[in-house]
Amino acid sequence: MEKIGLIPNPTKEQAIETVKGIIDWLEKRGIEYLVEEESAGLVGEQNKGSSYQEMAVEVDLVIVFGGDGTFLNTARHFAAVEMPILGVNLGGLGFLTDIELSKLGSALEDLIAGKFEIEERMMLEAKVIREGEKINQVVAVNDVVITKGSFSRIIELKTYIEGEYVTTYPADGLIVASPTGSTAYSLSAGGPIVNPKLKSLVVTPICPHTLSSRSIVTAGDEVVEVEVKADHEDIMLTVDGQTGLKLASGDKIKIKHSDLVTKLVKLEDYNFYKILKNRIQFSDF
């Protein structure tokens, strides 16, 4: 491990203070580091500031300090180079940032000692087709969501899988999630929990105006196509709940697995079901 990238959430004081401590820890062990440029001044290391592009070619892995939102933003920045990412949880649920602050010291020791594995997570690719032409293309770690505006009427989402018409959802929206994203917005909308090592797409309607709508889990190599129908213009496509673009009635969105993957650093004691139990707090009957 020659050089590590440090990416704290600059809006969280705890993240900034934690990174200051990590810098001392790394310097005592002679390990080089870079700090994301927006946060470098906040931790007093302006000369170590680095853009995502510079980090992509200079560091061996990055450590993210924050919540899953910080992790998702980082993962999309490094998607093209498949940078290994370790997440330290300073947010809420933290399915992606699974290292707790109380265990950070031992986690760093294991990291430097090479006691970790790289777990590849499937990403999504979505293309927006308007009048037969591709107008946009995005990649996502968790999910791609088609949704109406806050004050608009429901929209109709004509859904195909592998070219086969499946159903039309009259709903507030539709979530197409990766297995990693199955514990995010899709779960809140009633979707299933899928082991993140699997390759699949999870299609979940948001507030469907019907008694029969259910989530659908597809094979990982299948394509989901959604045609949007609405009598208003307040329709959005959002990526991981962080970036978005406006859609129009008649647009078609084609969603499939991406050729890119997100690489997560997982320490030796990592277990998805242990994280799931701790985060979801299943009741014992």
UniProtKB/TrEMBL annotation:
Enzyme type, top EC level: transferase
Keywords recorded for this protein, A-Z: ATP-binding, Cytoplasm, Kinase, NAD, NADP, Nucleotide-binding, Transferase
Superkingdom of the source species: Bacteria
GO cellular component: cytoplasm
Binding of NAD(+), residues: D68, G69, N142, D143, R153, D172, T183, A184, Y185, S186, L187, S188, Q242
GO biological process, one term: NADP+ biosynthetic process
GO terms, molecular function: ATP binding; metal ion binding; NAD binding; NAD+ kinase activity
Keyword Ribonucleoprotein tagged: no
Reported cofactor(s): a divalent metal cation
Reaction catalyzed: NAD(+) + ATP = ADP + NADP(+) + H(+)
Family: Belongs to the NAD kinase family.
Role: Involved in the regulation of the intracellular balance of NAD and NADP, and is a key enzyme in the biosynthesis of NADP. Catalyzes specifically the phosphorylation on 2'-hydroxyl of the adenosine moiety of NAD to yield NADP.
Protein name: NAD kinase
Name of the gene: nadK
